# Entry
Amino acid sequence: MCEIFCFNSNKPEEVNECLECFYNHSEKHPDGWGLASMESDNFVINKEPVKASCSQHLKSILSNPVVSKNVFAHIRLATVGEIISPNCHPFIEADDNNRSWMLIHNGTIFDYPELDKYKDREKGDTDSERILLYIIDKVNEFEAKKKAPSTIKERFNILNDIIADMSKNNKLNLMIFDGDLTYIHSNLKNSLYYLKSEDSFLVSSTPLSKDKNWKTVELNKLFGLIDGNIIFESKKHENEYVTTKEDEMVIEELKKSIQKDDSNDKRENG
# Structure
């Protein structure tokens, strides 16, 4: 299972200490790392298909202050998709109104046929990238019908409908950013936590400090954050994900397939 990280604040803050703690978990999540932040209304994204603790590039980034209102990070344990750069999170894509969307995902899509058509469109081969492409298509369809850009609330409602449906029988911990709103969703118990301060929200797969104020993100709801505050909160759906033996077997087979492919690539390039 991957780990995900989000910092959302009403003012730029340095987050190096939190990021260093987060990336220290890469021993159990060795298949890639990613980091995204907003600078002057533009995404700055760095990612590599290597263990975070072994990355000189990441070490160089964290040797300087990482300061932003919006920061997202990911460490990957591959279950779907090869161990290559295009499969590392975050994923970014623009909609038809030139709004940039970013997504990071912790989970696995076991059954959602609507995503299949994106296998030929995505840059990599992950279910996570297909989720983002699907979301953007739905936003484009809404805005084309409206003949105008969507409002923040309209986009929240679109994503809420998508996620409530997609979460059936699928593990779906998501962090999404559309340039205005940060979306947070979890449907797996004890897999996402948050720490609220006066100015910010810090959200992570595991608590990143000994602070006793860390709390679990409420399951089966979509939250919309702006400037360190919850702006929107959906009604609760009923699609809590509970791991089954069948799902565990599927994930293990996927892991073995990825590890085999990676081993073959290393021999061929060795």
